[in-house]
Amino acid sequence: MIFAANWKMYLNESDSNEFVKQMHLEKENFVDKDIMIFPSFSSIRSVKDNTLFLPKIVIGMQDCSHEITGALTGDNSINAIEVDACIVGHSERRKIFNESNEIIKRKLDNALNNVASTILCIGETKEEKDKNETFNTLENQLSILPKELHKSQLIIAYEPVWSIGTGLVPSNEYISEVLSYIKRYLNELYSDEICDKILLFYGGSVDENNIKELSKIGNVNGFLVGSASCKFEKFKKMINAI
Ligand code: PEP
Q1: Cβ count within 10 A of residue 191
Q2: Distance from the CA of 228 to the center of ligand 1, in angstroms?
Q3: What average pLDDT does this structure show over 54-76?
Q4: What is the CATH number of the domain that holds 69?
Q5: In terms of residue numbers, what domain contains 207?
Q6: How far lies 175's CA from each of 34, 60, 160, 179, in Å?
Q7: Cβ-Cβ contacts under 8 Å for 124 (sequence gap 6 or more)
Q8: H or E element: which one contains 128?
Q9: Measuring CA to CA, how many Å separate 234 from each of 132, 136, 216, 242?
Q10: If you average pLDDT over residues 148-171, what whole number do you get?
Q11: If you take atom 7 of ligand 1, which residue's CA is the nearest one?
């Protein structure tokens, strides 16, 4: 089971260093675990340098530019800094930054071609769920996947928008049904060999109280956790629970 921490814009560089210092002090909780951390862009270098004591840790970008280089003030190329992973298509990017499927596809291609692991986030809004349009939405979001996968490990994170940061968590049955749908979609697109390598995560209001129960879902390979992952004690509890 993989634990992926999306620190969003919650921790600045000094908060991130403090967090990692705590991890070092209690490293027996983390050394043999599969952990991914997505700090703010400006903290990536420090977090990378200060987590060398964890041989398995993966540090990544929360997003990348749709371009590799060029006149894009304020944007960050996937090659801006060496990272192991990148998230694309997070619902906050889709909603707040109006990112279209077209733009996300270009980001996805850049990530897939340049880093070891790429997380594509997908998920329906409350309105789409209420109108029974969940699978249509997911199909549309998955339609940007390339026909072939070569370099990067693909991870699909199912994150219902209505669950992110709200405390609302779908039942295990609901999540499992959606993940089965995603698996069927991937099976139509890729060979069995490729499908076996693709991982499925759940994300949305995961915390130290519900992660154990959520980890009973048969087809979930990991969790993408936002706000609860920014608090060290919660982070530690969640990692120890799975
Ligand atoms: C996320 O931002 O990917 C997320 C799942 O957020 P939260 O855990 O805060 O709901």
Answers
A1: 10
A2: 8
A3: 97
A4: 3.20.20.70
A5: 2-241
A6: 22, 25, 9, 6
A7: 133, 134, 137, 138, 160, 161, 162
A8: helix 126-130
A9: 34, 35, 19, 13
A10: 94
A11: 226
